[in-house]
Amino acid sequence: xxxxxxxxxxxxxxxxxxxxxxxxxxxxxxxxxxxxxxxxxxxxxxxxxxxxxxxxxxxxxxxxxxxxxxxxxxxxxxxxxxxxx
Length: 85
Known about the structure:
single chain; three-stranded parallel sheet; 5 helices; 9% strand; globular
């Protein structure tokens, strides 16, 4: 949550006042990578923070599409791997 708030603040907005354009600074990308590294190797993990939708582009840049599943896609496939958005 803190990372998302920092990114939104850096971009001139907030969760309840989204900026026109979200800008990920180098430090934000480093923090994102450190957070995601903590989950490396786990078969399933999820992120539940509405701010993720506002900062999604920078988050997706860190992972390939093959590692992302929506809850519906995972349920219909009978399994989940990667990030559950």
